[in-house]
Amino acid sequence: MDILESIKTTVEGSPIVLYMKGTPQFPMCGFSSRTVQALKAVNADYVAVNVLEDPEIRANLPRYSNWPTFPQLFINGELIGGCDITLELYDSGELERIVRETRKP
Fold this sequence. Notes:
Layout: H1 3-13, E1 16-20, H2 30-41, E2 47-50, H3 55-65, E3 72-75, E4 78-81, H4 83-92, H5 94-101
Parallel strand pairs: 1-2
Antiparallel strand pairs: 1-3, 3-4
Helix pairs in contact: 1-3, 2-4
Protein name: Glutaredoxin
GO molecular function: 2 iron, 2 sulfur cluster binding; disulfide oxidoreductase activity; metal ion binding
Binding site for glutathione: 21, 58, 70, 83-84
């Protein structure tokens, strides 16, 4: 399977997907850590993909999403954004609403 198809399958296969550096338990950068904290605060059930474990995903995800940096948060198949946008949504209460309304697998 082509790497872009693989990314698409992952993004469309779960309601909330976070591509990050490291894991939720051991984030490997501050931006990923803050994004995980925001998701945890709103009790989000999500799939985390460690881009450091797969150089092909790390190299091609920015092409797929048109977003150059990590982490990248997808909800219902659409790119929400990175750390800054996730934190803005959290601060405004929107992240909690979006997560609550997200379809269940």
